[in-house]
Amino acid sequence: MLLSFKFEIKEQDKFRFVEEGTGEPLLLLHGLFGALSNFYGLINYFRNYYRVIVPSLPLFDLDILHTSVGGLEKFINRFIEARGYNQVHLLGNSLGGHVALKHVLKHPGKIKSLILTGSSGLFESGMGDSYPKRGDYEYIKTKTELTFYDPKTATKELVDEVFAIVNNRMKAIKIIALAKSAIRNNLGEELNQIKQPTLLIWGNNDTITPPFVAREFNKLIPNSELYFIDKCGHAPMMEVPDEFNTILHRFLKKLGQPATIT
Predict the structure, then answer these.
(1) Nearest-CA neighbor of 26 among 250, 262, 248, 243?
(2) Nearest CA to 107 among 79, 141, 139?
(3) Is residue 237 situated within a structural domain?
(4) The domain that contains 118 carries what CATH number?
């Protein structure tokens, strides 16, 4: 996936991020095995209407004590402060959604809206209940394919990236630490505190955070609306980018027209 990623990666302090376009900030947070490239179709479309920002989350760079949902939320808070963003539309996929939820609950002031897709925070079934098998490429390939409705979405390049992570001992330890932190950090009792308009976009065939999870988020977050996409798994913005972008753009337009590039 990364080889086809053509946007410039900017650096400020310890932050690495993509920032394209102008207007209200649309800040995108990737998941546990995710990367900036997961949002290629989203960046390409929305940079014509918004300032689209994708920070690279330090999944493997935090010390083990802070390798947690809370540690990632603190990183995002520092990033928003350092860049001076305000009126942010905050979008997260999978673990990124969990971090977004945590941030909105702790620091709601600069967040205008929340968008979740395949988010953890209530329930998720990750790599399974077993330790990821290092050295077993076919096992990793099968598990990566389960992320999507169409297994072909899991390109060899994407499987290679996941395989490389799992086979690095320290990265594997940190992946497990983050996954355990996500399971422990259940936000069910806090979600009713979220005041921001919230959009839930879910794959009807998501096996990691199944449709019942989306319905529960919809029930618990007061000002939320839910859309399901058929024949779609855990990462709709990758698998069906056009439909995802249409639903998201309609939601954002309702919140007020941003400046458009002419």
Answers:
(1) 248
(2) 79
(3) yes
(4) 3.40.50.1820
